[in-house]
Specification:
- The complex is a heterodimer of chains A (about 160) and B (about 110).
- By secondary structure, chain A is α+β, with helices and mostly antiparallel strands.
- Chain A folds into two domains: about 30 residues; about 110 residues, Immunoglobulin-like, CATH 2.60.40.
- In chain A, about 25% of the residues lie in helices and about 40% in strands.
- In chain A, strands 1, 3, 5, 6, 8 and 9 form a six-stranded mixed sheet that branches. In chain A, strands 2-4-7 form a three-stranded antiparallel sheet, with no helix packed on it.
- In chain A, strand 8 and strand 9 form a beta hairpin.
- The longest helix of chain A is centred in the N-terminal third of the chain and has 16 residues.
- Chain A is flat and about 65 Å long.
- In chain B, strands 2-8-7-4-5 form a five-stranded mixed sheet, with no helix packed on it. Chain B has a three-stranded antiparallel sheet with strand order 1-3-6, with no helix packed on it.
- The radius of gyration of chain B is 16 Å and the shape is elongated.
- Chain B has about 110 residues and is an all-beta fold.
- Chain B has one domain: Immunoglobulin-like (Sandwich), CATH 2.60.40.10.
- Chain B has no helices and eight strands.
- In chain B, about 0% of the residues lie in helices and about 55% in strands.
- The chains are: A alpha+beta (about 160), B mainly beta (about 110).
- At the A-B interface, strand 6 and strand 7 of A face strand 5 and strand 6 of B.
- Strand 6 of chain A pairs antiparallel with strand 5 of chain B.
- Chain A: This is Sulfur oxidation protein SoxY.
- Chain A: InterPro entries: SoxY, SoxY_para_1, SoxY_sf.
- Chain A: It comes from Mesorhizobium escarrei.
């Protein structure tokens, strides 16, 4: 005996569930494209560490607490390490909480770096938390987080 | 491709840790901005920066759109021997721009 496929589907899902699914769909459509696509801060860090445990300390992230212009925010990351062949910082990565993409920059260091200290300028789309993660040569991960209040945001200025 | 500005100390002592600064003129267009005609402005960013010291790679960075226009990177190196320090920036299209500086170690 053949059932009407539409009836069978409706019976399987249920009216309320069907409505709820529709609402979620609408919500997803109404969000900007990047808001759906970007991984969360923790997911981005997990991708970088490969699921390893991230400890607090040994890294310092300097970020101004109050940012006037989010288009260029100076940051400095310093990791405590003797930078010898046996014990050095391999990578330093910076992640953000609310930009369209979670990654900011990844630095690759060697013992020949001498110090584990890097500076750059980044964009912040809104007030948010920024996290720096350092990977040591023994495979451990250390992190530091800082938050900034942004008064003029990056990425939203009108070009017309 | 673009103008660059690198800052390497001219002279350093053997084993001294020197600070290197590198900047390149580049819009670092994120691809998320909307232009006057209502469509997205195409993404155009510097993806990778590398620094070699007498041919050996000593520092590199992967850049994402969250790095500001005219990317500036400062880092440190141990001055080992006199020679050249070369810098390379690679963009989305694979185009590269290089700069170099010499250092005298005594």
């Amino acid at each position: 005996m053949h059932e009407d496929p539409l009836r069978a589907y409706a019976g399987l899902v249920g009216r309320r569930q069907f409505l709820r699914a529709g609402m979620t769909g609408l919500l997803v459509i109404s969000l900007p494209r990047w808001a759906v696509a970007r991984p969360s801060l923790d997911e981005a860090i997990r991708t970088f560490t490969g699921g390893a445990n991230v400890l607090d300390g040994r890294v310092r992230l300097d970020l101004p607490p109050l940012v006037e212009n989010g288009n260029a925010v100076g940051i400095t990351v310093v990791a405590e390490s003797p930078m010898t062949e046996d014990d050095h910082v391999r990578r330093i990565a910076v992640f953000n909480e609310k930009n369209p993409e979670a990654n900011v920059v990844v630095f690759h260091l060697r013992p020949r770096s001498g110090h584990a200290m890097v500076s750059t300028r980044i964009r912040l789309a809104t007030s948010q938390v920024v996290v720096a993660v350092a990977e040591m040569s023994d495979g451990s991960f250390w992190s530091s987080r800082a938050s900034a209040i942004v008064t003029l945001a990056a990425c939203i200025e009108d070009l017309s | 491709m673009a103008r660059t500005l690198v800052n390497v100390p001219k002279v350093a002592k053997q084993g001294e840790v020197v600070e290197i600064k590198a900047m390149i003129a580049h819009p670092m267009e994120t691809g998320y901005r909307i232009g006057p005609n209502g469509s997205n402005i195409a993404r155009d960013i510097i993806r990778r920066f590398t620094c070699t010291y007498n041919g050996e790679e000593v520092f590199s960075a992967d850049l994402f759109p969250a790095v500001s226009a005219n990317p500036f990177i400062a880092f440190t190196l141990v001055a080992t021997t006199s020679g050249t320090i070369d810098f390379t920036w690679t963009d989305d299209a694979g185009k590269t721009q290089t700069a170099s500086a010499t250092i005298t170690v005594n």
